[in-house]
Each structure stands twice: as C-alpha cells, then as structure tokens.
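User: Here's a structure from my thesis project, written as structure tokens. My advisor, Dr. K., wants to see whether a designed sequence matches the one we expressed. Can you design one independently, without my sequence as a hint?
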C-alpha cells in the first residue's frame, strides 16, 4: 500500500466530509448528531461560534451562568447551531452589547444568516440595533427562539430582514419576554418583533412590555409582520403598555397575505404614554383572521382594533372581546362576527397587571361565540367549547385561568 497516498486520501475525505455537512443538513430525513461545546467566558463563546461556523455547523454551544459582554456581534453563518443557557435559567445567562444607544459599537447582539438556528434560555440586551437579526436575505429559515429575555435595544428587539423574494421561512418565537427596563424605549423607532417578508412564522406565548415611544412619533408594534409577509400566526401572547400591539401589513409596502391573530391579551393602562395607539391592526393585509382576542384600554384611545385602507380585503374579526369598538377605516373591508366591545373592568381578574382572564361567567361572553376553523384552545391551552359552547375573548372561562400551560415545542401549524 502506498502510505503517502493513503494519508492523502484520508485528508481529502476529511475535507470533503466537512464540506458535505452543511449540504447533508439541508436534505430531508438527514439528521446528524450535534456536538456540544461548553463555554464560561466571552472568548470561549466567540471561539466556539467561530469553530462551529468554520466546521459547517451542527453544534450546541452550552453557556454557563454569567454575564458575557461582547466586543463584537455573534455571527451565525453555518446551519444547525444552537446557543443555550446550560442552567435553563434565562436570567442567569446575560449576553450583551456595549450600549442601548445610537452610538453603540455593537449593532446586533446576534446576527443569524443560516438555517435552523436555535436560541434557548438566555438574556440578550444592550445593542444599537437589535438583540437578534434574522437575515432572510441569506435565506435563514427555521430560526427558533425560546425561553429568552430580549430587552433594552435602541431599535427593534428582533428584526427579520429580506432581499426581494429571498426571505426567512418557518421561524418560531415562543415563551420569551420582550421589555424595556425603564417601562419605555429610548427612541420611537423600536418594536418587539419586526419582520419583513417572513412566511410561516409562529409567535406564541410571549410577554411584551413597555415597547413605547418617549417622543417624536408612535413606536412600531410589539409584533409586526409586513412587506410581503404571509401565513404567520400570532397567538397566546400578553402585550402590556405597548404603543401598538399586533400589526399585519403596512400601507405603501408589499401586501401581507393571510395569517392568523388569535387568543392574545392586549392591555394598556392610563399611564400617560403620549403615543398609545391600537391593539390589533390590519393595514394592507388580505384574508387575515383575527379571532378570540381580548383587548382592554384604560387610556383614551377610541377604538381597540382596526382594518384600514383599500388594499385590506377579506379581513375577518370574530369572537373578540374589548371595551372599545373595532373600526373599519379608510376603505378597509371585512366582516365582524360575534364580537363584544363593551367590556367592563370588573369582568377581568387582574386588570392592572394585564391579566385579562374572566373573573366570572359574563353572560354575553361565556358560550356566546361561534366555532372558527382552527380554534381548538384558549390563551392557557385549555380546550375550547368543552361545556356548552365557545366563549368570546382569549380566555375560555372555567379552565385553568392564570396558569398558562407549556406550549408544544414542535409540530406547530400555521393557517
């Protein structure tokens, strides 16, 4: 045997194997076991990510408790990379930039430009742009962000970008906290999740607090899918004291197509926020379903939900509960069915904390709704219609009120 050539062959095989890993990860039915690297400081974290990128991905980076102050953005450029807190306590693993400021040297804490990125059990904070940018222009699909805290960025907390028809598909954001520590953002150009061109995303079981403008203009939404987005689902979220709650579409940009907004609780106190606006809005959005949400405003906003502009067609608002009207504006068209818009503060268990579970069996709400295709559970995951019918609003009265059940980690369905 020619030992020199044998060694060369082994080297070539090794190189080709590394090149094939990212290709194999994209093939249906091919699942490769992820290796795990444990890190305890910033240098180890950055080196582990660089090695994962250079090696074709398929790595779990397990981060020990501590505060990780970055000197540069964490760039995810290879598929199937996971960053997770080892302890599972998201408050104990803090990964941060240098400042919540337009002058920050770190724009994004994490930038994702590859498929199947996962982030679990960490806090991201302090950046000039975003806690996470998912680069749809790099066709970064399947991002999953669970059990995290995202707070105190100068612009939107999660940004999903695109380039033409190259977009991000099938992401999921679940059981996370989005907040501004001061109760208000430092700048109006902020939002919770701001997604261009996103398709098939699910935003479920999160809490959004204090995404509000201090001056100048209204902030962006807690959750916003727009600019050629399609078929996204926003459900079982709590939105408290944000200028605007959930928005699909935006006038002047490519139409949002379809999608569902259901089982969300949106509350705004009378806290003097200068730009407090609508709870749920469709704007340049077609065939979007908005059902079984609860919106309560203690401020002076005149309506709770809206669908507006002539490009908004086929909107369906069903079984929603609020204390303010649902408005058709500026030529928007749709249908309203079985909504209750005269709710009293006494109907709810914990209004001041944004808990919009029903305090009692209000006769105009309990069993007064109608069946909707795709509606199977409520805000807490309790089954709908288990007694005499469907309740109006996000809470099916008589279930495990106030105890949100864990959300399923896989197999989510979008309509």
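Assistant: Designed independently from the structure alone:
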């Amino acid at each position: 045997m020619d030992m020199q050539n044998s060694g060369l062959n082994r080297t070539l095989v090794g190189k080709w194997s590394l090149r094939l890993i990212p290709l194999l990860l994209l093939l249906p039915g091919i699942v490769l076991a992820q290796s795990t690297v444990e890190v305890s400081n910033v240098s180890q974290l950055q080196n582990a990510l660089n090695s994962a990128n250079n090696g074709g991905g398929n790595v779990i980076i397990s981060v020990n408790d501590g505060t990780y102050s970055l000197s540069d953005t964490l760039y995810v450029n290879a598929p199937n990379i996971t960053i997770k807190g080892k302890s599972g306590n998201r408050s104990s693993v803090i990964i941060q930039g240098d400042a919540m400021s337009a002058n920050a040297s770190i724009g994004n804490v994490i930038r994702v430009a590859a498929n199947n990125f996962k982030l679990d059990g960490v806090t991201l904070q302090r950046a000039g742009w975003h806690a996470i940018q998912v680069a749809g222009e790099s066709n970064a699909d399947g991002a999953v962000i669970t059990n995290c805290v995202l707070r105190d960025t100068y612009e939107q907390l999660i940004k999903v970008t695109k380039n033409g028809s190259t977009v991000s598909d099938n992401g999921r954001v679940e059981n996370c906290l989005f907040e501004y520590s001061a109760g208000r953002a430092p700048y109006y150009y902020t939002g919770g999740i701001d997604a261009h061109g996103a398709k098939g995303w699910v935003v479920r079981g999160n809490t959004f607090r204090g995404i509000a403008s201090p001056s100048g203009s209204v902030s962006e939404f807690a959750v916003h899918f727009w600019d050629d987005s399609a078929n996204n689902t926003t459900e079982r979220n709590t939105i408290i004291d944000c200028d605007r709650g959930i928005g699909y579409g935006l006038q002047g940009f490519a139409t949002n197509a379809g999608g569902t907004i259901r089982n969300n609780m949106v509350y705004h106190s009378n806290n003097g926020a200068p730009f407090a606006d609508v709870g749920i809005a469709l704007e340049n959005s077609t065939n979007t379903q908005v059902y079984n949400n609860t919106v309560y405003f203690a401020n002076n906003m005149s309506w709770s939900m809206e669908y507006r502009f002539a490009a908004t067609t086929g909107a369906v608002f069903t079984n929603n509960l609020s204390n303010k009207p649902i408005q058709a504006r500026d030529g928007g068209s749709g249908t309203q069915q079985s909504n209750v818009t005269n709710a009293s503060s006494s109907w709810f268990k914990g209004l001041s904390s944004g808990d919009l579970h029903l305090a009692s069996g209000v006769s105009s709400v309990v069993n007064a709704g109608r069946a909707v295709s795709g509606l199977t559970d409520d805000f807490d995951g309790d089954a709908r219609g288990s007694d005499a019918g469907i309740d109006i609003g996000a809470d099916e009265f008589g279930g495990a009120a106030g105890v949100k059940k864990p959300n399923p980690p896989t197999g989510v369905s979008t309509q």
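When you compare it with your expressed construct, this may help: The chain has one domain: 33-358.
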